[in-house]
Amino acid sequence: MSADRSKFVFVLPGLIVLVAIILFPLLFTIRVSFSDWDVARPGLDWIGATNYLRLVHDTRFWESFGRLALMAVGSVLLQYMLGFGLALLVWREVRARRFFRVLFLIPMMTTPVIMAVIWRTMFHESLGPVNDLVRLLHFAPLPWLSQAGLAMMSIITVEVWQWTPFMFLMLLAGLLSLPREPFLAAAIDGAGPIRTFLRVTFPMMAPISIGAIIIRLIEASKILDSVYVITSGGPGTATETSSYYIFIRGLRDFQVGYAAALSFTYLVIMAISLTIIAKVLARAMLVRDRA
Amino acid sequence: MSALYRILKYAAILLWSAFVIAPFLWALTTSFKTANGITGGPTYIPWLQYQPSLEGWRLLFRSGGGGIQIGGPYLDSLIVTISASLISLVLGTLAAYGLSRFTFRAGFVRNADITFFFISQRIMPPVVLAIPFFLMLQFLGLLDTKFGLIIVYIALLMPIAVWVMVDFFNTVPRELDESAMLDGCSPFETFWRVILPNSKPGLVVAGLFCLIFGWNDFFFAFTLTFTQTQLLPVAIVALNSSVTPWWSLSAAALVSVAPLVAVAFVLESYLSRGNLAGAIR
Amino acid sequence: MSLVATELTRRVDGVVHLDSVSCVLERGRFYVVVGPTLSGKTSLLHALAGLDAPDIGTITFDGADLAAVPVWSRSVSMVYQQFINYPHLTVYDNIAFPLRRRRLAHAEIESRVRAIAETVSLTPFLERLPGALSGGQQQRVALARSLVKGSDLLLLDEPLINLDYKLREQLREEFLNIFSAQSRSILVYTTAEPNEALLFGAEVLVMHEGRLLQVGSAQSVYARPATATVARIFSDPPMNLVPGSLDDAALRLGDDVRLPRPRHFGPLPPGPYVFGIHPGDIAPNPSGIAAEVELAEISGSETFLHVHHAEMRLVAHLSGVYAYALGENVQIALDGAKLFAFTPDGELAAAPTSGG
Q1: Global pTM?
Q2: Looking at the complex, does the CB of residue A2 fall below 8 Å from at least one CB of chain C?
Q3: Domain carrying residue B204
């Protein structure tokens, strides 16, 4: 077999499997979104853009986007700042740093949905330890899961707990691969720690920062499991994200056609906004680099 | 470094450590409680604040009344995760090697576009795929089977394997491949006899990522399996009803997250050696 | 019994790597490809090995076209400038690797590996992994691996460039002995250093910007470089080139330097020329041209003196260590009998008579 032919032997099996598993469902979703498929009448009829016209006026859908944006951007920013801080803390000159590194990685290894179940017991209004801590600080116990703002905060807390380790991992790997010379140069110039960070560390970490933030934003935009377990979208629809709303429409109410239209719209909006965010981030962080 | 700075630094490290550990400690102490130890409000220290019991742990092997019979789901989770990870790793590594070493051209499509196609599958929200997957598996008669779930997980995990391995292979000098071919290896022999034996760091990291994401999935197991096949997260979340048996829930949670905590140690050792992707020399 | 390359041309993303290179390489002979970085040396080796197919051009071996023969079926070996070995195999297994791919008998492999290991002084290290060896030893392993299969074509791509000076000298010596024993292979060795080619005394191919500029014995290329470009490439430091003119009685360099017309220029017609002189043929001399020192580099027991006289810049290669201050005024003399003359478009017009 020639090199020209054998190269396909490497790539094609994976490509075919992936196309078969992913592309077919995606095309199918698009087709279904133009049908009236629901629990009463399953089938691929053609109703034109009716589902899309319906979703334009579906305020619950659009509100879920706002909440998703708040939740995703809020938690990813927190994760980035905390993860960067932690990576800097255990980067060098710390006792038992390998122990702390392992410890800081652990939450990322645990099953989000299982830890969410544990967190739910912790946020329990009367029986959970979180309110015990609140009482210890001489405040009144808070209804963590049954008040809109607090429920959002609870979910963000759990997300931060779960995924800050990922930022930590990426940023620490980045820090450990930085060359030494720029730091020596900064030290020779007499730059203090803050100046060194702003002028040397942060600019050199910009590319990996952008990568890590984008990966986390992509993952965060899919959030569903933890919402399902911790608040089930409640109270009311206060923590309902787009994924969760589509889940309810499609797999609870079994309005398959409408859910498909919602799915496709969601996918397109996500792809566009993530592309824009990636461009904006790259510009904002890399311009600093040149300054 | 001033003393104040040092104190603040260690205080921050310890504070975050406490936050990281809190859910585990809470689950650990709760797993030894009974209804009595819970309904009176939060308690932490056994014997002092509540009478510890092994009931929660015994329930892992019983059914009914808060029992969870964790053996079956544990085995199912292991089978599905390991099979899907292995298949993804094999397919993903082959594809990554091809994309790293050969030039593909088809119309406007280049290697980078194919690589992006592989990796971009991670952008797809599970909820978008759930209904078509459901109908697809139903059509194939694979709903509620381990095999059906493995197929779905391959699509989920292969992009991760491709992502890590393309990065890895790009750090392996091409001269190594050329030498092997000059020494009489066909492209496939080159891959098998020379490249693969020197790819352990990449394979370990890619494999671990596959295991993590496979083991930790909930949504597809939840929507595509019901009674015949039950994965750990689904079994545990099923306990999360209005009257939750916190003790067996906590015990089950600890047992199911334990194996991957070991992964953190392996991952850290690769981190400490300098580069996660791992270079060959 | 030869390898014939005809008009090899290769471009990658619009950049010319090889530009119509043709050459004939005979069995049992030793060729050194000389050229600066990115001159196309490595591209030529890749094309000869069959690793990269040329866009245009053919390669035949003993008359048979090689285009359809995949790399792994050819009889080619290559040693790289990086020390490329199989990191997961011991030195023994590394050397045995190509033989095992050919399914030779066990005893045959054993005896061949031991023999070649003895030649390159690796016998004590056979059970080690390459990563545990020094750079020089790693390159010996790569060399042994390329020699053991007795290929028709043995390619060495600047194999000594990543070694330190002393090791380089020592290995070069050993290479020469080993190569002289290879009577049936075609050896092609690339280097950026003309001195290496002169030391090997081999057939030289001079390359520049993907083109093959001149082919000939090392001594003949040095004595009669076909063009000014070859003259610069095949001289270290590069030959000094100064524009000037020639009339019946005298030779002018720059604006105001006049030298008597050298006898070896013979019947060269008057007119503008570019004159060349090897840095070794320039020396300080009280009766020479006044010049100002720009830089004096000392390397080992040699001094490279950079000077200028008005617009004319020259480098002199002096044996021995001399101290010069920057900006110091010196007198330097050009040996007229050692001057080369090139036409304004770079063709050799006259060269010093050899022996001088």
Answers
A1: 0.86
A2: yes
A3: 71-241
